[in-house]
TrEMBL record, chain A:
Listed GO biological process terms: DNA-templated transcription; nucleotide-excision repair
Polar residues bias locations: 327-339
Nucleus among keywords: yes
Domain of life: Eukaryota
Known function: Component of the general transcription and DNA repair factor IIH (TFIIH) core complex, which is involved in general and transcription-coupled nucleotide excision repair (NER) of damaged DNA and, when complexed to CAK, in RNA transcription by RNA polymerase II. In NER, TFIIH acts by opening DNA around the lesion to allow the excision of the damaged oligonucleotide and its replacement by a new DNA fragment. In transcription, TFIIH has an essential role in transcription initiation.
Subunit structure: Component of the 7-subunit TFIIH core complex composed of XPB/ERCC3, XPD/ERCC2, GTF2H1, GTF2H2, GTF2H3, GTF2H4 and GTF2H5, which is active in NER. The core complex associates with the 3-subunit CDK-activating kinase (CAK) module composed of CCNH/cyclin H, CDK7 and MNAT1 to form the 10-subunit holoenzyme (holo-TFIIH) active in transcription. Interacts with PUF60.
Limits of the BSD domain: 99-147, 180-232
Database matches in PANTHER family: TRANSCRIPTION INITIATION FACTOR IIH-RELATED
Location(s) in or outside the cell: Nucleus
Protein name per its UniProtKB record: General transcription factor IIH subunit 1
From TrEMBL, chain B:
Keyword DNA repair on entry: yes
Organism: Sparus aurata
Catalyzed reaction equations: ATP + H2O = ADP + phosphate + H(+)
Protein name: General transcription and DNA repair factor IIH helicase subunit XPD
GO terms (BP aspect): DNA repair; hair cell differentiation; positive regulation of mitotic recombination; transcription by RNA polymerase II
One Pfam family cited in the UniProt record for this chain: Helicase_C_2
Lineage: Eukaryota, Metazoa, Chordata, Craniata, Vertebrata
EC identifiers of the protein: 5.6.2.3
Keywords per UniProt: 4Fe-4S, ATP-binding, Coiled coil, DNA damage, DNA repair, DNA-binding, Helicase, Hydrolase, Iron, Iron-sulfur, Isomerase, Metal-binding, Nucleotide-binding, Nucleus
Localisation per UniProt entry: Nucleus
Any coiled-coil regions, as ranges: 171-220
């Protein structure tokens, strides 16, 4: 596995993995671990496969580093060198921190996408488990038609990729937890850090200036959360933390945004009124003075909150529309610190005067006629299916009686084969008697729900979905116009269906057995 | 299409028409026929402006001798620009239909762009400008004095017209005003002595003119050339300027004495309130200033400034203010009050004396307009209750009507949320204003709405202070954080530039699909001037009833005046005022029949008949009995249902025949009968 030409960036000895001593190697493209005395790696992960790393909190007896892979598996390394364990771990962590993002970029976009799809769609995940994990079909085949759209219709996905914006509440997502000894612990993820950096370039600049020369990363974030800057309701009382400058910069950004003014004349409050009264005229010209001297501490803190919310929202908005700027784009930083993304210049106020006076419904329509969705019961569309309420109530005695009656008749039933129903009548009778049919309206669905344990229902659903998926694969092979499809069809698809069938059969028998 | 409105051929530049537009034009024609005044309420977004323009232009063309000019007044610059745009559309339609070139001259005036020289106003068929050009005597004198009597005046968006009237006649004097005035007077003095050396004849000539009196102005008014200036009352036109202020030096000396007196009045330690006669008595006793020369102050100063050929009048704004005050205070013994406050209520330790000379009677400023022009139409989307306007503006309308919005689908959904989910009564009333439970429930309402309403939500608070406190409280409780998960938050600030920026960002966020919430205040600039069409406002939440700050002495004086002179009870007026602002706020979201929006009234007091009954009819009729006292949860359920229904496609065919008519449909007897029901006469 280990080719000789691989560059080794860091070697850490005395690292335990699964209670085995060994050595950790960080190479250009992967991280690997080999047990002591052996010259092969028993653990090896490409950086691209690693989703994130986690470290044990300071003060814990065991100094550990955990790698979590995209697949969900994880590997934990325990640094056991007594004298330098912490240093070793941090060295490895730092290096990984630099390396991982690079590979994250390169990391298989598909993999991420698949992961996301699986996470977001529990049904798909189950299907994946049923089909791929149990090796009915291969993972590639499973993804083949799912990701098809993504790969085929879009030959240059990278260029057309839509940027993901930032959640407006990302700061709120950093829920502080008490650590049990009068402290607070903030959990930061790479995503949150990126959100902070994208929204507040000033903080990113500070980070670049101070970390790691003046402060460690941890110290930096600790100070961030302690700063007045983070807590919007506190007014900056002039304490000299490194973020006071950020606050000033924000203030400046906000000012410059305000000075720039708005492009849409319809929202420009400054020029809304044609003639404001001259000074000294009017009833309410003596507005309460807003000078700071007259304001109480509470009032200025309230005003500060309001300002900060406006600024925050503007920055989030700007960060969302800032395109093509990689987070490491240094040159763009200064220009974007004022929250005015250049893209927002392209934002055209939609309500132009012409449009504002237009009454589209007073004009004859001359756009293309479209086919309208014709809903018989729009209410049902809006609310989803509602269980039908039975109008007639039958007592349980009635039901028992009629059941007995039918049973009695059935016992004595003799088919009169010469006088059978016509096929249409028969099929309509079947429909009527099937679940959902006219005669089965009352309570049938509920009865099935109640009769069968949810567990069985769930399993059946999975089997059904899995079989359906296979059939989808099967039908997607038609028309068979390539050797690959032919191979797929004649070769393993048949096999797969067979497997699926036997799987169902196994389940069925197992269930039957359990029941009896 | 070409319409037949009660025998008048009206060109209407659209293929279809709303029934209420037709009905509106009928009422308008009746008003013009009777040469009287009218009060017409029609919801915004039903094409009020184009109906007005179409009918009045047609009327002018048909009876050029009866109506010579249309004076269209609106409040904001965008509104004025919209009117001009609609007028342009109408004119183009005329040209296309008749094949004639346009011989109609229309003028739009706004201070920033194209200040027009007034001879042109004389010739224009249509003048579009801001209220102030007609109601503020200081400008009206310059711009509107010579407008023809046979004009039709339209005040659009007139729901606040009484306040505009009052503002234009009220004066505030601070120490700073007096200091600046002092400088002005010094400059005048210097200029006079300089001119005396170089060109004494000029001053003599002025003196001669003043002996002649203001005859010229009087002749003009009697021959009905001019619009009367409420500052310059009739009586003084017949008299000569009194001898005591006839020479320039005497007048400057007089001004000094008056100023010193005002300075002494500002040296108070407690609040003083007095009537104008009391003030005049005091000034006579203290500094021997008579009523008569005071009345001529404004006119005398204008004459002096003209004589001295002072180019930049703006520099003399302080002395002009004082002179105007002198004239007003000596002219009106009723309708005004003088309040001298030594400090602001919030900061009793900082001396900041202000003399408020407050007009309490809006009819004073608008009286010349009603007297001079044959038809004055007051119209707005929210003018309820209609009968209060003629009372407070002191005029007799020939037509008063409120029009509903005919709807093919109920595109507005007013809900009154009176309780939280914990059954706590929701209200912004003073006693529960700080109540934690109310604030929390309000927050909960906004949070839940932010999760179900698409795109934009606008929330209004009763005052800026109230909003600040609630926002701070929501921040502490983490409610805002949770809202941010659903939408971005933008908040109005006292700074107009900052708010404009927030507004633009708000629209950007609605536009790009992220969705946003705008927190704003009733009576603020946003609530009065910004429309939230379509996705810019899918829901408006009115937190509390926006009563005016009742502790103000000026307001108290006005309420007393209304009670004594107009027999309007304090509470009635306050409720009327609060409800018109609430209606303005919630009305911001519905800007047409294809638009839709929720209107949430979050205060249990809205359920009471005296509040609800003062909402415009087009809102009131959609409040069902079941939605009078909802909990937050119930309101959310109803809102969800409403929004889903509204999200269904809505086509022109759905409206045709119901809320949209073709020419053929308009000719059927049945439809005309239906239309007759739209106008609700009062």
């Amino acid at each position: 596995m280990a080719s000789l030409s691989e560059e080794v960036l860091l070697v850490v000895k005395k690292v335990r993995q699964r209670k085995q001593d060994g050595t950790l190697y960080l190479m250009a493209e992967r991280i690997a671990w080999g047990p002591e005395g052996k010259d092969r790696f028993t653990v090896s992960h490409l950086y691209a496969d690693i989703r994130c790393q986690k470290i044990s909190p300071d003060g814990k007896a065991k100094i550990q580093l955990q790698l979590i892979l995209h697949t969900g598996e994880s590997t934990t390394f325990h640094f056991s060198n007594e004298s330098s364990a912490l240093k070793d771990r941090d060295a490895a962590k730092e290096l990984l921190q630099q390396l991982l993002p690079k590979f994250k970029k390169k990391a298989n976009k598909e993999l991420e996408e698949k992961n996301r799809m699986l996470q977001e769609d529990p049904v798909l995940f189950q299907l994946y488990k049923d089909l791929v994990v149990s090796q009915v079909i291969s993972a590639d085949e499973f993804w083949a038609n799912r990701l098809g759209d993504m790969n085929n219709s879009d030959p240059t996905p990278y260029n057309n990729k839509q940027d993901v914006g930032i959640s407006g509440a990302f700061l709120a997502d950093i829920r502080p937890q008490t650590d049990g000894c009068n402290g607070l612990r903030y959990n930061l993820t790479a995503d949150i850090i990126e959100s902070i950096f994208r929204t507040y370039p000033a903080v990113k600049q500070k980070y670049g200036e101070n970390v790691p020369h003046n402060l460690t990363e941890k110290e930096f974030w600790t100070r961030f959360f302690q700063s007045h800057y983070f807590h919007r309701d506190r007014i900056n009382t002039g304490t000299q933390d490194i973020f006071s400058e950020c606050a000033k910069q924000d203030e400046k950004g906000l000012k410059s945004m305000v000075v720039q003014g708005v492009k849409n004349p319809l929202v420009d409050l400054l020029s809304l009124e044609d003639k404001t009264l001259d000074e000294g005229y009017g009833v309410s010209t003596t507005t309460p003075s807003t000078s700071n001297a007259n304001r109480t501490v509470k009032e200025s803190s309230n005003a500060a909150i309001i300002k900060r919310f406006n600024h925050h929202s503007a920055m989030v908005l700007a960060a969302g529309s800032r395109k093509g700027e990689t987070p490491t784009d240094q040159a763009s930083e200064t220009s974007s610190t004022d929250g005015n993304s250049r893209d927002s210049d392209f934002f055209q106020p939609p309500v132009r005067l012409q449009e504002a006076i237009e009454y589209e419904d007073l004009q004859r329509e001359n756009r293309l006629k479209t086919v309208a969705l014709n809903l018989k019961k729009s209410d049902r569309y809006a609310h989803g299916p509602v269980p039908l309420q039975s109008q007639h109530y039958t007592t349980s005695q009635d039901i028992i009686n009629s059941v007995n009656h039918i049973r009695h008749e059935m016992v004595n039933y003799k088919p009169n084969l010469t006088q059978v129903l016509s096929s249409t009548a028969a099929s309509s009778a079947i429909t009527a008697l099937s679940p959902g049919g006219v005669l089965m309206m009352t309570g049938t669905q509920q009865a099935i729900n109640q009769m069968i344990p949810t567990e069985v229902q769930g399993e059946l659903k999975h089997l059904y979905a899995a079989a359906g998926e296979l059939l989808r694969h099967f039908w997607s092979c038609f028309p068979v116009n390539s050797p690959f499809l032919e191979e797929k069809l004649t070769g393993h698809l048949e096999e797969m269906l067979q497997t699926a069938y036997s799987k169902f059969h196994v389940w069925q028998t197992r269930r039957m057995l359990r029941k009896t | 299409m070409k319409l037949n409105i009660d025998g008048l051929l009206v060109y209407f530049p659209y293929d279809y028409i709303y029934p209420e537009q037709y009905s509106y034009m009928l009422e308008l024609k009746r008003t013009l026929d009777a040469k009287g005044h009218g009060v017409l309420e029609m919801p915004s977004g039903t094409g009020k402006t184009i109906s007005l323009l179409s009918l009045i232009v047609a009327y002018q063309k048909a009876f050029p001798l009866e109506v010579t000019k249309l004076i269209y007044c609106s409040r904001t610059v965008p509104e004025i620009e919209k009117v001009v745009e609609e007028l342009r559309k109408l004119m183009e339609f005329y040209c296309k239909q008749t094949g004639e070139s346009n011989n109609f001259l229309a003028l739009a005036l706004s201070s920033r762009k194209n200040l027009c020289i007034h001879p042109e106003i004389m010739h224009a068929n249509i003048v579009v400008y801001s209220y102030h050009y007609l109601l503020d005597p200081k400008i009206a004198d310059l711009v509107s004095k010579e407008l023809a009597k046979k004009s039709v005046v339209v005040f659009d968006e007139a729901h606040n017209i009484d306040n505009v009237c009052i503002d234009s006649m009220s004066v505030n004097i601070t120490r700073r005003t007096l200091d600046r005035c002092q400088n002005n007077v010094d400059t005048l003095q210097n200029t006079i002595s300089k001119i005396k050396e170089t060109d004494a004849a000029k001053l003599k000539e002025e003196y001669r003119r003043l002996v002649e009196g203001l005859k010229e102005a009087n002749v003009a008014r009697e021959t009905d050339v001019y619009l009367a200036n409420p500052v310059l009352p009739d009586e003084i036109l017949q008299e000569a300027v009194p001898g005591t202020i006839r020479t320039a030096e005497h007048f400057v000396g007089f001004l000094r004495r008056f100023m010193e007196y005002l300075k002494s009045r500002l040296r108070v330690h407690h609040v003083v309130q007095e009537s104008t006669p009391q003030f005049l008595k005091d000034i006579f006793e203290k500094v021997c200033i008579d009523r008569k020369p005071l009345r001529f102050c404004a006119e005398r100063l204008q004459s002096l400034l003209r004589t001295l050929e002072i180019a930049d009048i703006a520099d003399f704004s302080a002395v002009t203010l004082i002179a105007n005050f002198a004239t007003l205070v000596s002219t009106y013994s009723q309708g005004f009050t003088i309040i001298i406050e030594p400090f602001e209520d919030r900061t009793p330790t900082i001396a900041n004396p202000v003399l408020h000379f407050s007009c309490m009677d809006p009819s004073i400023a608008i009286k010349p307009v009603f007297q001079r022009f044959q038809s004055v139409v007051i119209t707005s989307g929210t003018l309820s209750p209609l009968d209060i306007y003629p009372r407070i503006l002191d005029f007799r309308p020939v037509t008063m009507a409120s029009f509903t919005m005919t709807l093919a689908r109920t595109c507005l959904c007013p809900l009154i949320v009176g309780r939280g989910n914990d059954q706590v009564a929701l209200s912004s009333k003073f006693e529960t204003r700080e109540d934690f439970a109310v604030i929390r429930n309000y927050g909960n309402l906004l949070l839940e709405m932010s999760a179900i309403v698409p795109d934009g939500i606008v929330a209004f608070f009763t005052s800026y202070m109230y909003m600040e406190n609630i926002v701070a409280s929501w921040y502490e409780q983490g409610i805002l954080e949770n809202i941010q998960r659903n939408k971005l938050i933008f908040i109005e600030t006292p700074d107009a530039a900052e708010t404009s920026m927030a507004l633009e960002k708000y629209q950007e966020a609605c536009e790009n699909g992220r969705g946003a919430i705008l927190l704003s205040v009733a009576r603020g600039k946003v609530s009065e001037g910004i429309d939230f069409v379509h996705h810019f406002g899918r829901a408006v939440i009115m937190f509390g009833v926006p009563y005016v700050y009742t502790q103000s002495r000026i307001l108290k004086a006005r309420l007393e005046y209304l009670r004594d002179h107009f027999q309007i009870r304090e509470n009635d007026f306050l409720t009327f005022d609060a409800m018109r602002h609430a209606a303005q706020c919630v009305g911001r979201a519905i800007r047409g029949k294809t638009d839709y929006g929720l209107m949430i009234f979050a205060d249990k007091r809205y359920a009471r008949a005296d509040k609800r009954g003062k909402l415009p009819r087009w809102i009131q009729e959609h409040i069902s009995d079941g939605s009078l006292n909802l909990t937050v949860d119930e309101a959310i359920q109803l809102s969800k249902h409403f929004l889903r229904q509204m999200a269904q496609p809505f086509r022109q065919e759905d409206q045709l025949g119901l809320s949209l008519l073709t020419l053929e449909q308009l000719e059927s007897e049945e439809v005309l009968q239906k239309i007759a029901k739209i106008a609700h006469q009062t």
